[in-house]
Hints:
Blueprint: E1 3-7, H1 11-22, E2 26-30, H2 34-53, H3 59-67, E3 69-72, H4 75-79, E4 84-87, H5 93-106, E5 112-115, H6 122-126, E6 135-140, E7 149-154, H7 160-172, E8 176-181, H8 188-204, H9 210-221, H10 227-234, H11 236-250, H12 259-266
Parallel strand pairs: 1-2, 1-4, 2-3, 4-5, 5-6, 7-8
Antiparallel strand pairs: 6-7
The structure holds 1,4-dihydronicotinamide adenine dinucleotide.
Amino acid sequence: MKNVSVIGGGTMGNGIAHVFAMSGFEVTLVEAKQQFLDKALDAIEKNLDRMLSKQKISNDDKKATLQRIHSTLNTVEGVMKADLVVEAIPEQFDLKKKVFQEVDENAPKHTILASNTSSISITKLAAQTKRPDRFIGMHFFNPVPVMKLVEVINGLETSEETTQTVMGLAEKLGKVPVSADDSPGFVSNRVLMPMINEAIFCVYEGVAEPEDIDQVMKLGMAHPMGPLRLADFIGLDVCLDILNVLYDGFKDPKYRPCPLLVKMVDAGKLGDKTGEGFFKYD
Ligand code: NAI
């Protein structure tokens, strides 16, 4: 494994390119538009500068990392030499299906295809390609250079060899891989989202103020961040989408999204990215 292609250079993709390049892999970042590519490369450089200022890396490390990152707007060209492709484009099945079909047709036979999806079925994505045995979920967490976990999701036909290769790769990045089978929300969101939803129900029913709910979880349960602050950070629209995936996937009313969450998303109060969610941001 030497060449890694990352498709999509947004919040997650630029972080994924960053960690692979820093660990010595040759990375090709594929974006849809030049302006997003420029933004992604700029974000990577800024994040490396932050690490440099904290003396976590040297100037030579920064230079070498940037030299290992190549970029293109052409998917076919971007995956031609890849040993691993990690997809990090928006969370829409039809978009991902189109990209994976193109990647499958143009990447070498041995190439492993991975999706960073947070909720779409890995089995269903794998079925859009002719290599479901070499298809896997590689679920990184935001911010990628900081967060240790990689949730490795096995689709129905993912081979043991593919799983072991990807677990080993995650370790080479200095991450801790945890393997789980494909199921709605995997482990991370299946456990996290009902907690966030329940915290929102506490606000909705007037049990306590958002600040107090977060205090309870921080001081009583040793959570570094309260569930409502975390929901704002993730994006309330993203939380709602994932709860709907759990609700539809299990057909169990325990996953029904709180009406207050739906209302806040309708009102455009999505958290950090719009300046207001359960809390206000500058
Ligand atoms: P984002 O919207 O920040 O970035 C997506 C990028 O993909 C954009 O820069 C866009 O220009 C690019 N793109 C769209 N179509 C493309 C194409 N055909 N070829 C190349 N690039 C294309 O999205 P974000 O937040 O980075 O999410 C990406 C994936 O990661 C989603 O599946 C999401 O569910 C998942 N995820 C997100 C997390 C988060 O905290 N944001 C956490 C874990 C997973």
